[in-house]
């Protein structure tokens, strides 16, 4: 792991020493580019009091290339599909090397707080969301209770 | 060229036409000495036995067309026959770039900004001058900010490379004595990071911005950072955008490794071609012939529709392309194939930046809240599984012939590569001049073109009504061209330079014969199309 870029070391250090509230990110001991991430569901959202597990991987070309992030915990959200893939601009076209792991994770947390069913990834979920928002929110709450239990 | 040819201007008239069968079999009045002695070559058949040397190709049409019968012209003069003609130039990428610069220089007085900035503006607007002008007149300042030519706040920092004795770059987190670069926005990063960043962005052909904001790097900045003229690479990628935008006027030569661009002057005449069931063929400076309409290689005697339907059917048959059909969609705007390998249904075409919905292929903007109409969108192509086995077998048969000739053409192409060596051998061993040895490359060109025509004649035959007399004539014509092509191909196998020279006349005659058979087949195929006997359908 001697070849780990300074940028990644610095970011990792800062994630540990100055963690973002409600977010943890731990590099894997065998692969320092692979992070185990948890994000707490934002308050006043259907995901409140849930703890969601994610995986984050920094590709070779990071920071020129965006990190790859995926939900491991099942979640009912219009912009996250059943494989945990996330539809978020900063992970794709709007990535810039000036962004960081923490800013990406914050963006994901913000996505939980404000689902955007008009730019959906999971079509069925998004459809439910539009047709009957209350029922969809209730279902998201239920899934949070069922799958996103704090450990 | 002694042949006479009569074509009524109103061609697609389906009257009770009397077809002069002999016409399709007759050959140009070539010097027949060359193949008279060739016993296995037989162009005679029951129908044209007495008209072999007589060289009239004529169509006699029913009396209602008689007023058009007066028009006579030679086979080669397409204008005189009332057929549309395409005016075009073949350009190199350098010439295209010069053209782009010229257009920018013409626009510059309106904008009154440096040429460098014009490049950025046009890149931002995908080389659509109209759209840029429109928005420019609406809100100049907004266009400048959106294109990254102005910072929102006016910092008084000069852009450029600086040297810092102790600098910590926020991208790589390395510190020490470093050269850095920043724009007026003061987002300063080390030169190594900038180099890496620019290198990754060059192939996109889009504006390269500051790593932390929307301010744009000019070409001179890019070259300063990279230490070479990398901006040329960006501009080359950008040319692709320009041609994409103006694809009505410009097309890349589709042949592998050919970088020529064809520019057509009179694009309005393009719409004339389908009516006559001919295609607007262009030839680039590498002598690659392709269809400006559909971008395929020369597909005569079939027209673009035959080629399109045939290619699509062929694609549906092959497992690989089946996958493409299943997993990709053509961008509704520019037609580029797009694979959706993740992400949401809000698609942005990489090549033309068109935003559309994956499900209904409609414009994303119009979508708004009514997105959910899309899940109700139904595909209609589910019930065509009743294709009979017979037609599939027929298709497979024709497809096999098609691909066999395609392979032969490829082999001939390889043969063509060795011809150059033969020409050199001729010059050295037999001592003849370069110009005298040109019959060899000319023969190989005739051979490849003949094969291509032959190849594309199978789709035409496949879609034609087999019971019609004209179809039978067409098939006979195919047969004759096959013989002519194979003959020429055999001749080109000769290796010894001396023998090649002895057979020089043979080369000439056989190549000319292929050409004339090819023309006869093309005319016959066009007739099938014009008379509605050949109807391409899936």
Automatic annotation (TrEMBL), chain A:
Source domain of life: Eukaryota
CDD domains: UBCc_UBE2N
Species classification: Eukaryota, Fungi, Dikarya, Ascomycota, Saccharomycotina
Entry keyword annotation includes Methyltransferase: no
EC main group: transferase
SMART domains membership: UBCc
Domain UBC core: 3-149
Presence of keyword DNA repair: no
Keywords: ATP-binding, Nucleotide-binding, Transferase, Ubl conjugation pathway
Annotated EC: 2.3.2.23
UniProt protein name: E2 ubiquitin-conjugating enzyme
InterPro entries, per the entry: UBC, UBQ-conjugating_AS, UBQ-conjugating_enzyme/RWD
GO MF term set: ATP binding; ubiquitin conjugating enzyme activity
Entry annotation: catalytic residues: 87
One Pfam match: UQ_con
Family per similarity comment: Belongs to the ubiquitin-conjugating enzyme family.
UniProtKB/TrEMBL annotation, chain B:
SUPFAM superfamilies for the chain: RING/U-box (SSF57850)
E.C. code: 2.3.2.31
GO molecular function ontology, one term from the record: zinc ion binding
Keyword set, alphabetical order: Metal-binding, Repeat, Transferase, Ubl conjugation pathway, Zinc, Zinc-finger
Stretches assigned to the RING-type domain: 165-378, 169-214
Domain of life: Eukaryota
SMART domains registered for this protein in UniProt: IBR (SM00647), RING (SM00184)
EC class of the enzyme, as a word: transferase
Signal sequence segment: none
Record field: catalytic activity: [E2 ubiquitin-conjugating enzyme]-S-ubiquitinyl-L-cysteine + [acceptor protein]-L-lysine = [E2 ubiquitin-conjugating enzyme]-L-cysteine + [acceptor protein]-N(6)-ubiquitinyl-L-lysine
GO BP of this protein: protein ubiquitination
Gene3D superfamilies: 1.20.120.1750, Zinc/RING finger domain, C3HC4 (zinc finger)
InterPro entries found in the cross-reference section: ARIH1-like_UBL, E3_UB_ligase_RBR, IBR_dom, TRIAD_supradom, Znf_C3HC4_RING-type, Znf_RING, Znf_RING/FYVE/PHD, Znf_RING_CS
Protein name: RBR-type E3 ubiquitin transferase
């Amino acid at each position: 792991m001697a070849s780990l870029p300074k940028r990644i070391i610095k970011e990792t250090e800062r994630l540990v020493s100055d963690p973002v509230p409600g977010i943890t990110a731990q590099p894997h001991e065998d692969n320092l580019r692979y992070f185990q991430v948890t994000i707490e569901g934002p308050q006043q959202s259907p995901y409140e009091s849930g703890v969601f597990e994610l995986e984050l991987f920094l590709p070779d070309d990071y920071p020129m290339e965006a990190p790859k992030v995926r939900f491991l915990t099942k979640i009912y959200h219009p912009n996250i599909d059943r494989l945990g893939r996330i539809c978020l601009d900063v992970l794709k076209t709007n990535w810039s090397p000036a962004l960081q792991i923490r800013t990406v994770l914050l963006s994901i947390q913000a996505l939980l707080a404000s689902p955007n069913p008009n730019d959906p990834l999971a079509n069925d979920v998004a459809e439910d969301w539009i047709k009957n928002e209350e029922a969809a929110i209730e279902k998201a709450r239920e899934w949070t209770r069922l799958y996103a239990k704090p450990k | 060229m002694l042949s006479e040819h009569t074509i009524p201007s109103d061609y697609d008239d389906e009257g009770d036409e009397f077809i002069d069968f002999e016409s399709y079999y007759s050959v140009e009045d070539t010097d027949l000495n060359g193949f008279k002695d060739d016993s296995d070559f037989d162009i005679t058949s029951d129908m044209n036995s007495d008209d072999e040397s007589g060289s009239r190709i004529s169509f006699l049409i029913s009396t209602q067309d008689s007023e058009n019968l007066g028009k006579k012209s030679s086979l080669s003069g397409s204008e005189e026959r009332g057929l549309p003609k395409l005016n075009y130039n073949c350009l190199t990428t350098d010439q295209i770039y010069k053209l782009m610069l010229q257009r920018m220089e013409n626009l510059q007085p309106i904008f009154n900004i440096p040429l460098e900035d014009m490049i950025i503006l046009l890149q931002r607007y995908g080389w659509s001058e109209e759209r840029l002008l429109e928005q420019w007149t609406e809100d100049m300042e907004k266009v400048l900010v959106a294109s990254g030519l102005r910072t929102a706040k006016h910092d008084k920092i000069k852009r450029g490379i600086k040297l810092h004795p102790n600098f910590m770059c926020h991208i790589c987190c390395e510190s020490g004595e470093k050269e850095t670069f920043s724009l007026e926005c003061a987002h300063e990063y080390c030169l190594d990071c900038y180099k890496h960043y620019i290198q990754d962005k060059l192939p996109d052909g889009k504006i390269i911005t500051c790593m932390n904001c929307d301010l744009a790097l000019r070409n001179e900045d890019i070259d300063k950072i990279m230490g070479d003229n990398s901006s040329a690479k960006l501009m080359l990628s950008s040319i692709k955008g320009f041609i994409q935008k103006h694809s009505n006027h410009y097309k890349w030569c589709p042949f592998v490794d050919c970088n020529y661009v064809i520019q057509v002057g009179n694009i309005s005449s393009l719409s004339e071609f389908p009516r006559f069931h001919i295609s607007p063929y262009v030839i680039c400076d590498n002598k690659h012939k392709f269809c400006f309409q559909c971008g395929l290689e020369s597909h005569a005697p079939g027209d673009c529709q035959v080629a399109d339907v045939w290619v699509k059917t062929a694609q549906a048959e092959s497992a690989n392309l089946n996958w493409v059909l299943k997993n990709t969609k053509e961008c509704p705007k520019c037609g580029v194939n797009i694979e959706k390998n993740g992400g949401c249904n809000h698609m942005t075409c990489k090549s033309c930046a068109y935003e559309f919905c994956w499900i209904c292929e409609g414009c994303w903007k119009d979508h708004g809240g009514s997105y959910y109409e899309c899940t109700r969108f139904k595909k209609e192509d589910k019930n065509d599984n009743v294709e009979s086995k017979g037609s599939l077998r027929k298709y497979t048969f024709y497809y096999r012939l098609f691909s066999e000739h395609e392979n032969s053409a490829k082999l001939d192409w390889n043969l063509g590569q060795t011809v150059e060596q033969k020409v050199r051998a001729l010059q050295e061993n037999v001592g003849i001049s370069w110009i005298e040895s040109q019959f060899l490359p000319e023969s190989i060109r005739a051979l490849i073109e003949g094969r291509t025509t032959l190849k594309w004649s199978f789709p035409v035959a496949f879609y034609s009504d087999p019971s019609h007399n004209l179809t039978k004539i067409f098939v006979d014509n195919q047969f004759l061209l096959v013989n002519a092509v194979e003959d020429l191909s055999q001749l080109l196998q000769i290796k010894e330079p001396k023998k090649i020279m002895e057979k020089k006349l043979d080369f000439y005659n056989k190549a000319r014969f292929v050409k004339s058979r090819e023309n006869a087949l093309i005319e016959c195929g066009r007739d099938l199309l014009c008379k509605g006997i050949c109807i391409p359908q899936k």
